[in-house]
Amino acid sequence: MSLSSSAFAFSASSFSFKATLPKTPARFYFQNPLPSIRRLSRKLYPVKATVLHENDDEQIVVQESFPSTSPPGSGIEQVGESRVNSSSSGLERWVIKVEQSVNIFLTDSVIKILDTLYHDRDYARFFVLETIARVPYFAFISVLHLYESFGWWRRADYLKVHFAESWNEMHHLLIMEELGGNSWWFDRFLAQHIAVFYYFMTVFMYALSPRMAYHFSECVESHAFETYDKFINAKGDELKKKPAPEVAIKYYTGGDLYLFDEFQTTRAPCSQRPKIDNLYGVFVNIRDDEAEHCKTMKACQTHGNLRSPHSYEDGFDDMLDCTILEADCEGIVDCIKKSFTTNQVKQTEAVERNR
Questions:
Q1: 193: nearest Cα among 294, 99, 112, 113
Q2: Is 78 within a domain?
Q3: CATH number at residue 157
Q4: Domain tally for the chain?
């Protein structure tokens, strides 16, 4: 009788534990089949991105839920481990500083060229900017598809968001073309050749260091935001008297805005609906789009931090018993290293099953 009671108590406690599991999609977000101590720790203590709203300014803050307690061990081991961690973090900070310095130098160089060539031709400058601005998303998707082909990577959210970003930039480009920004042969020639060079440079950079590539894209989008903001402040009254281009009206006020919501990674889907009354409203929306791109590129610099806005919908509540396996890696070096580790683990598991 006591054995039966004990078994019933254990079963009831187990049922209670299962019933109180929170129904949240967060438990699926960092699943990774690639065996790695580092990735295992990320799965147990996921990194979460939150958005703080203070005085209408949005900041993406990365909060880590790692426990503050250190594993048991002797004092000498803890001191040695802290020294290794501090030296590793110091090296990483130095690498990040070098990457960002290179990106800022490259961005400033391009800005000086554009300032010299287009100081009095706004629409032509915007045409060149939009031709260049959509290139990184093509490069990101190309590299990620390559990784998928080798089985190194599988995270659908990145592909969805980056495609939505390229779709948004394409419509910016169509708007500038309708406004006559591409009327000169020289402008088309310059924009297209810069775009080709920029594509291969971004592919190489993204394969080497995704963090560096995302920061460089953030610098480009930040410059685009500042350019449109200055233009709106300088010529706002004039823009309010002009009609909006037809392509802008169709894109921003069309029936299906799924892709428009997809790159708004700091907002809930359907929470922002553009209003187009005149050309001023068009440029305000373009400027706001560039701000969203900046936030997304900033969030991407923390590996594994990007989530599609539509991933948080109620559909995940019906998938609590499912497991979403996602392969992941940081750059081509990490991908190759994890591929060898995965093969070794699979061989070990196969040997154990055959015993």
A1: 113
A2: no
A3: 1.20.1260.140
A4: 1
| Residue 207 tokens, joined | 């394969």
- Residue 74: phi and psi, rounded to 5, are -75, 160
Residue 50 lies in a domain: no
Residue 289 domain-assigned (yes or no): yes
227-272 confidence digits (pLDDT tens): 999 999 999 999 999 999 999 999 998 767 777 778 776 666 665 6
Q: What is the pTM of this model?
A: 0.67
**Where in the sequence is the domain holding 202, given as residue range(s)?**
93-312
Alpha carbon separation from 194 to 117, 119, 176, 218 (Å, rounded)? 14, 18, 17, 18
Which neighbouring-strand residues pair with 54? 57
Q: How many CA atoms lie within 13 A of 111 on its CB side?
A: 14
| 97-134 tens-digit pLDDT | 999 999 999 999 999 999 999 999 999 999 999 999 99
Distance CA 279, CA 126 (A): 14
- Give counts: helices (H), strands (E), the chain: 12, 2
The contacts of residue 305 (CB under 8 Å, 6+ apart) are 47, 49, 62, 299
Site of tokens 């601005």? 133
Measured CA to CA, the distance from residue 273 to residue 260 in angstroms comes to 9
- Residue 51 maps to a domain: no
**Other beta carbons less than 10 A from residue 196's beta carbon:** 11
Beta bridge partners of 51: 60
